[in-house]
Give the backbone structure.
Amino acid sequence: METYMPLFWIGLAVLALITEAFTTQLISIWFSVGAVGGAISCIFTDNMAIQVSVFIVVTAVSLALTRPIVKRVRQKNSLVKMNLDRAIGREAVLTKDITKDREGELKVLGDYWLAVSSDGREIKSGTRVRVLSINSAKLVVEEINEGEASLPKEKAVSGSGAGADRRG
């Protein structure tokens, strides 16, 4: 049995790496490092309890030392700054319907963006909407009632309409 233990630990390390390849959470990578520690301990002892202890300790230490660093790097890289926050408060016309099953589409700041309703209601294409926020790469919008509609800021530069915001 002891002659096969290095193969067991190496197999466990490979299995953990394969598992890690199919996930994005960086969970099983530390088990792979621990399994390598277990394989190395086979060189020095045949005692299974010591090998398992080495596996547990190496896994825990590698997790404790690297997890905060990995978490910080992933958190820093998760935010993509796009200047899209300028779209918040803008008004636009939907170019595709927003339904319960599908996002709509609108053109704001010269680009087309996916749009979802803020309250989950369906909104038909051609309806005037206001951008309330951004959720991932989708704009969260609300329908504008007839009485409160005004020209979108991006078209206000042309000078048409009373009270238009001329900052563009």
Remarks:
- The first strand starts at residue 91 and ends at 96.
- The helical segments are 5-21, 29-44, 48-78, 153-156.
